[in-house]
Amino acid sequence: MALHITSLNSGSNGNCYYIGNNTTAILVDVGISCREVEKRMKKLDLPLKNVKGIFVSHEHGDHIKGVSTLANKYQIPVYISTLTAKNGPRLITQLSKSFSNHQQIMLDGLAITPFSKQHDAIDPYSFIIEYNTICVGVFTDIGVCCANVKNYFAKCHALFLESNYDEVMLENGRYPLHLKNRIRNGQGHLSNKQALELFVEHKNENLSHLILAHLSKENNTPDLVKELFQTNSTNTLIEVASRTEASNIFTITNNSTPIIIIKKTEQLQLF
Fold first, then answer.
1. At CA 21, angle to CA 17 and CA 27, rounded to 5?
2. In this predicted structure, what is the pLDDT of residue 93?
3. Which of 41, 53, 111, 243 has its CA 20 to 30 A from that of 33?
């Protein structure tokens, strides 16, 4: 038994993460267009009919851009907190399913647990997805590593983990001071340093895959962050999710041996 995971896109231009077994899958956020989700999943041979739910982390546009169109076209339930729904995508009533903090939701063998976090949104959540004894996490848009983040991180065999910015690049970059402060004030995003500390101090000994996500285009580079984490990793495969294309598909089991790459993706135009 295994879970298959891929990032369909990751960054301030759109976020969408796929987690599923051979018959049932979910998407966490749909921040790219419905058309791009269709193209990228088709390229990976991932059938949309397997997607039984869309889980929305918060109402920012790079996480909800394609939610309504995709959900309505394929009649996919959208799991979203009540407060986020009031400020987020327009949804057909019967497709909207509310959840609360730490509430486990069962979808054909997948157990999805939302947990609250610090971010400058109305009611933000991250998620873990469990199948048998396998646990995968989607941890992005996090201002600080609170107790929830640390506790759920320690359960995971694989993660999408935000590593948004290099502190020196942000400080010396062209962003105005108010935007720099928004990013690093504890309600914005995790720095490379903060993400690395979480990884080193709280990782499960069977954490086989770490996909670094939501990198800043201006204040980070894939090479910089990958080297930083590889230097501090022994048995964990380190990859970086792209801002412009889907990642490879990774197969996650409950042991520490990485199973890598089912299909190689090709570059696709974003919108």
1. 25
2. 83
3. 111
Split at pLDDT 50, 70, 90, the class of 66 is very high
Q: For residue 264, what is the enclosing H or E element? A: none
Distance CA 209, CA 199 (A): 11
pTM, to two decimals: 0.93
Helix axes 192-202 and 222-231, enclosed angle (nearest 10): 30
Both structure tokens of 201: 């101090």
88 token code pair: 């987020």
Of the chain, the percentage scoring pLDDT greater than 70 comes to: 94
Confidence category of residue 258, pLDDT binned at 50, 70, 90: low
Q: Where in 141-196 does DSSP place strands (E)?
A: 158-162
Residue 270 has pLDDT above 90, yes or no: no
Closest CA to 161 of 202, 109, 106, 111: 202
Structural domain spans, the chain: 3-252
The CATH homologous superfamily of the domain defined by 3-252:
Ribonuclease Z/Hydroxyacylglutathione hydrolase-like (3.60.15.10)
CA distance 122 to 84: 6
DSSP class of residue 191? B
Task: Tell me the C-alpha distance between 236 and 256, whole Å.
Answer: 8
